[in-house]
Hints:
Blueprint: H1 2-9, E1 11-14, H2 16-20, H3 29-52, H4 54-85, H5 94-98, H6 104-114, H7 118-121, H8 140-166, H9 170-174, H10 179-188, H11 196-228, H12 241-268, H13 276-299, H14 301-307, H15 313-318, H16 325-343, H17 352-378, H18 388-411, E2 421-424
Antiparallel strand pairs: 1-2
Helix pairs in contact: 3-4, 3-18, 4-6, 4-8, 4-11, 4-12, 4-17, 4-18, 6-8, 8-11, 11-12, 12-13, 12-17, 13-16, 16-17
Amino acid sequence: MSDEHNLSAHTTTVTPERALSTVHGRISGLAAGLWLGAAAVGIVGFFFALRIDPERAWMTVWSNFLFWTAMAQAGIIFGAVLVVAKGHWGKPFRRVAEATGAFLPFSLLVFAGMYFGASYIFPWMKPGFEGHINRTWLTHDGVFVRNGILLAILFATSWWYLRLSLRPDAPLIASKQTGWRKSLLERISRGWRGDEEEAERSRRTLSWLAPVLIGMWVLVFSFLSFDLTMSLMPSFMSVIWGALYFVGGWLCMLALVAFLSHRYKEHYSLEDVWGKWEYHDLGKLMFAFVIFWSYLWFSQFLPIWYGNIGRETQFFELRTENGFGPFLWAQMALIFFIPFALLLWRRPKMRSRHLATVGMVILVGFWLERWMQVVPSVWTGEGVPLGWPEVAITLGFLGLFGLSYSLYASLTAKIPVSEALIVGERSRGP
């Protein structure tokens, strides 16, 4: 009896009306202008860099594609994981994470454009290349056709999942919207009656679609990492390279959710929805994957050391020479050492501002990590290529990501509407 009393005394039930109050309905003119301006800077910067140094321009596109695509897809996977694991703790963050999937159409367009820059990136496509390479697997058309088809299937399945996830909320949100947003939501909810039988059918569909989507994510992003990054150095081979890529994207997504939910919490007064215990759970998950990713990264050294595989040391040598060494240490500090120290203690994880700060540190670190995956293997010039082309093109990707995210977020509520959310002090973990 006392446990029930304590639970009811420290929890809050979020009503549909409260969730609907977070429907914004539009993007502010200032925000839209900033996102479009950043995208324009990126496009113009790319074409300028393409005329001056095409290798450098395409390297930057390559690393940014890897960074933003992995984070965007992981947001949808977050919702799928909650379905599979029945993780009720994460429901308040679900819509914030899923909105990252709005970037995926842009990602597919960028990937198609990368076809024309492959000759500047892949060493095995350059004249006079000598080295062991699987010529039946690694071909110009083969890499892009294979991965393009896989990405298209994955993204289409992801959008199907998003539609199913959003459909119960769509009729309610449509009443708060106007214009094209209202029309789109009405199309999504067409035929939805809202009875229990239909809701149960939707839950059953999501229950088998979610694990399928997770499996596709692991498979497709493993292929993508092998073909787009590991092949940049034919002498290097890592069996956990795929895991490093999609686990890193997952951690980036958690960091972004921590940052955005903090901003939304302040804007919509959602302190009772995203309270200290919700952030404590999110912080524990971030802490766990900071350690897990770092373990995976270090594990690459072990077979090379134990097996005395000299030819594979070139990969790490290139990242410690020619001025890249400080960036390697900066990468590890931003992804592991600093987040580990800031997330080690219990109480800081309960503060959203603290988690948002840690999230920004992790995001900067992973952008640098993706850049370090590509550039040292490809760059043939002198010094470290980090200047205005990298800044401009990265701003372009930020603008496209921010614009797509803002458009999707303006379409939906910031928390699920049709599901009853019970939030608050419901558990006391370590």
